[in-house]
Design a protein that fits this description.
Largest sheet: 5 strands, mixed
Number of helices: 8
Radius of gyration: 15 Å
């Protein structure tokens, strides 16, 4: 992926703000989008598991689907996946299988777990860390990266329970 870091950082900051709005409208704090080498980027994907009943409708996969609808499968080859929370095992596997070249995330899996979204068990079960894509994934911190998680907790403080399913990303 040849997009410069400042461009990726700006897109990640926008994804985080989209994520905050999504949390305020009842969603969970995960948004994904793709950035192609030519500068094109997908519409953000949001987690739609609860709304659709589709256990694969994670934010990253929704973003991949949007990219394919907009530009065809070739749009995925060599693209960078940006995610507000580090992708779960399923999302890493789908991204790797479809030619995504790099993954950057605002909040890592351990931080997401500390904020109530613990999907780390799936990594060991699926040997995700052995995937080259997961092994080369890197944080892309942005100023308000934790804001969606903080806002989610604020809105759900009274009924907060730890999410442990890999369907939360």
């Amino acid at each position: 992926m040849s997009a410069d870091t400042s461009r990726l950082t700006a897109l990640m900051a926008d994804a985080v703000e989209t994520c905050v709005r999504r949390v305020e409208s009842g969603g969970v704090p995960f948004v994904g989008l793709l950035v192609a080498d030519d500068g094109w980027f997908s519409d953000p994907g949001v987690n739609l598991v609860d709304e659709t009943g589709d256990p694969t409708a994670h934010a990253e996969i929704v973003a991949l689907r949007k990219a394919v609808r907009a530009r065809g499968r070739a749009a995925l080859q060599g693209a960078t996946l940006l995610a507000t929370g580090e992708p779960c095992a399923l999302c890493y596997r789908v991204a790797a299988a479809h030619g995504i070249a790099a993954v950057r995330f605002a909040v890592d899996r351990d931080t997401a777990a500390a904020w109530g979204f613990d999907y780390r068990a799936g990594y060991a079960v699926d040997a995700t860390d052995r995937l080259p894509l997961a092994a080369t994934a890197r944080p892309l911190p942005v100023e308000r990266g934790l804001a969606p998680f903080v806002r989610y907790l604020d809105l759900h403080r009274d009924d907060f329970t730890t999410h442990s399913s890999p369907t939360t990303t």
